[in-house]
Specification:
Length: 736
């Protein structure tokens, strides 16, 4: 006989409440516990008995917090069905497990790392690419992914910069929406969708010194204006879950922060989804010294609003005793259980708990998935130098040397947070060039001896030197103290450069790393990132001119490590009215090597005739920014037009430039098009003095091809309106 919670025609909230009313305390606590993969592998029968008893609500398909650094455990649909069958058919209430996996930027088809994706400045393409990734993962029986990572990163020494969208809150917000929509699709109950998880809430990317897990110090002003906007964007996109971070934020560990999770996120923002801890971050509360022991840490996390413990012991071992002792109340447990159940109903688990065990065979690396991954890789790569039009290469009559540590590499292009990609599916740069230009004579040497590579370069007409980081030097807990290429690569670039042959450096990696040797010797420099399974094809098509490069930096490229933190959206500094020729450093320029938003094409673009729709703007109106864009070159190319603003006078100090809109525009040679970008009322707010403020007074507008945009306009804004939180008066973000 069916029960109301099994009736799919009833509203989800009715089903949640009916199921909650039938649960024992042990079953409720079980829903808040996520077990790692190793518990099943270690003792199969004991694990299945725990599932039968309803001890766990979720399973994470990983056996360590550093799964991205040590992939190896594969996903087996038949095993997942076996476990799910016990949960659904043999447990008292038949509640399915929600299965989670770190599907960060690829399943078997692997996209470029998220930082590279942001370099595409194409959120729509990213959204479409993630539909394919979701389809592949879901075909294996995965329901939930721990992405996107929305941490703003302004110190590229941090290894997890690869998972971010860079330094800018607006650009990151656009990709937050894109990835959430890509994973979740039009309906979470769709068999090809995954529940997304916005992480790490909040401020984890500001770890001091670029040292993973280190403390963070962020003012309320910066928290609201820089670090929270991508999370707001994810919430607006309907993200179903969030993950609380490892970090101590100004003395308050986030996974124990009631004001941030229960206050800002759940009450002020109205989030009704699920909050899961990062691996072990609840237990870390005792390590931080803000609770006496593991039991106290569990109580603090539940009160803060962490609904599910990754991993299970943090809640499984303590919640019942804490309730008996009066240290927590049943309402907090019930609220978290409802959020877990709500997620399961939304995903459609009660209607479709099992996966077709053969479906993945027709889904993995589907032709359209692979094509989308290549298209995104092409748009992600950033051309930083191109002296005397060295690129694109002539496709006939050339001897081309393809050498260097990444000429033949494969696994490295998958990046460090890739659990299921296969090295054999990766096209190397050498293979990509062979496939794209069979008419060229391509020379190569294995990456074993530099003298062999130098000799190979001497025999060639042009050299493609592939350098950069491997996946072993980027990712979680893989930080570097100096922003420099791995040992020996500067010397290799110098040695090849001294041959005098035209030199194209292709730099692969997960972070912006300056290369003095490449600046001195390279005629062209292509920043290719860790671009996934289709790396070789994408590099070849750009170098050979089948496509014009269109990537733009989503993060500033410093000259030296000593400039860090370096980012474009800086505030005015003191004493400048008296000290106009002040130079921050005596031994180095303060300017970046390459600015935010920068990237070259195989053409040139001009901006002119800027027009603002209003000289005086009402607070409720859009400001339309119109200008003419012309392709002045000889080839079809794509420009990323960027619109920045500056508020000269405000309630608090403001950045000298803030990105507010952008557009990718493809023009034929000589073509001129009128382009309009928008600055909506929502884009004209900022946090100051405890609340959201409207821009008012003068607003300076800049349009161009990077953050140093020169074309300028000015309009007047009226005094701002008063902002209020839902159901509140006064401060819109009253919890902070």
């Amino acid at each position: 006989m069916s029960t109301p919670y099994q009736d799919a025609t009833l509203p989800i909230e009715e089903r949640v409440q009916d199921l909650l009313s039938r649960m024992t305390l042990a079953e409720k606590i079980g829903q808040l516990c996520q077990t790692p993969m190793l518990e099943f592998e270690a003792n199969r029968e004991a694990y299945l008995e725990g599932v039968r008893q309803g001890r766990w609500g979720s399973r994470i398909l990983a056996d360590t917090a550093w799964a991205g650094n040590a992939p190896g455990l594969t996903v087996d649909p038949s095993t997942l069905n076996e476990i799910q069958r016990v949960a659904v058919e043999e447990s008292r209430l038949g509640i399915p497990l929600i299965v989670a996996r770190d599907v960060i930027y690829g399943q078997q088809t692997v996209l470029p790392i998220p930082l590279a994706q942001a370099a595409s400045w194409n959120p729509q393409l990213v959204q479409e690419a993630y539909r394919g990734i979701a389809r592949e993962a879901a075909s294996l029986g995965i329901h939930w992914t721990f992405a996107p990572m929305l941490d703003i990163v302004r110190d590229p020494r941090w290894g997890r910069v690869i998972e971010s969208s860079g330094e800018d809150p607006y650009l990151s917000s656009q990709f937050a929406r894109a990835v959430v929509n890509g994973f979740q699709g039009e309906s979470l109950s769709d068999a090809e969708s995954l529940l997304a998880c916005a992480k790490h809430f909040v401020g984890y990317g500001a770890a001091e010194g670029g040292r993973d897990y280190d403390t963070t110090e962020i003012t309320d002003n910066t928290l609201h204006n820089v670090y929270l906007p991508p999370f707001k964007a994810a919430l607006e996109a309907g993200v179903g879950s969030l993950m609380s971070g490892f970090n101590d934020l100004g003395g308050e560990p986030v996974s124990g922060s009631r004001r941030l999770i229960r206050g800002w996120l759940k009450e002020s923002q109205g989030f009704d989804g699920l909050v899961v801890s990062d691996w072990g971050s609840i237990s870390d509360l005792a390590y931080f010294g803000v609770s006496r022991d593991a039991a106290g840490a569990a109580a603090m996390a539940l009160k803060a609003g962490v609904d599910m413990a990754m991993t299970n012991e943090a809640y499984e071992d303590h919640l019942a005793n804490l309730l008996d002792a009066g240290d927590i109340d049943i309402e907090a447990i019930n609220d978290s259980v409802c959020r877990v159940l709500r997620a399961k109903f939304r995903v459609g688990l009660f209607e479709s708990p099992y996966v077709d065990e053969q479906r993945h065979l027709d889904v993995m690396r589907r032709e359209d998935h692979v094509a989308m991954a290549q298209h995104l890789a092409e748009q992600s790569m950033v051309l930083l130098k191109n002296r005397q039009q060295t690129l694109p290469l002539v496709r006939t009559g050339l001897k081309v040397a393809v050498i260097g540590p990444h000429a033949h590499s494969k696994r490295q292009h998958l990046g460090s947070w890739c659990l299921d990609g296969k090295a054999e599916d990766v096209t190397s740069i050498y293979e990509g060039l062979i496939a794209a230009a069979p008419e060229l004579e391509i020379l190569t040497e294995p990456a074993d001896f530099s003298d062999d590579m130098v000799e190979c370069a001497r025999r060639a007409d042009v050299v493609i030197l592939c350098v950069g980081e491997s996946h072993r030097r980027t990712g979680e807990a893989r930080n570097i103290a100096e922003l420099a290429l791995p040992a020996g690569q500067e010397q290799l670039i110098t040695a090849i450069g001294k041959t005098g042959k035209p030199l194209v450096v292709v730099q692969c990696g997960g972070r912006p790393i300056p290369s003095p040797a490449a600046e001195q010797y390279a005629d062209a420099l292509l920043f290719a990132w860790q671009a996934g399974t289709e790396t070789g094809h994408a590099v070849a098509r750009i170098l050979l001119g089948y496509v014009s490069p269109s990537g733009r930096l989503p993060i500033t490229m410093p000259r030296t490590t000593g400039q860090v933190p370096i980012y474009y959206g800086r505030k005015p500094i003191g004493k400048m009215r008296d000290f106009q020729d002040y130079q921050p450093y005596k031994d180095e320029s303060a300017e970046p090597l390459y600015p935010f938003g920068f990237g070259l094409t195989y053409s040139q673009f001009s901006y002119k005739n800027l027009h603002l729709s209003h000289q005086q703007l009402d607070s409720s109106e859009n400001l339309s920014v119109t200008f003419e864009l012309t392709n002045e070159g000889a080839v079809t190319a794509t420009e990323v037009a960027q619109c920045y603003v500056r508020l000269p006078v405000a309630e608090t100090t403001r950045p000298t430039r803030e990105l507010k809109d952008f557009a990718r525009i493809t023009l034929k040679p000589g073509e001129t098009r009128t382009i309009t970008l928008q600055i909506s009322p929502e884009k004209r707010t900022y946090f100051a003095l405890g609340k959201q403020q409207d821009f008012d007074g003068q607003l300076e507008v800049f349009v161009g091809g990077d953050c140093n945009a020169k074309l300028q306009g000015l309009c007047e804004l009226p005094p701002g309106r008063e902002w209020h939180a839902p159901g509140q008066t006064g401060c819109a973000d009253h919890w902070l």
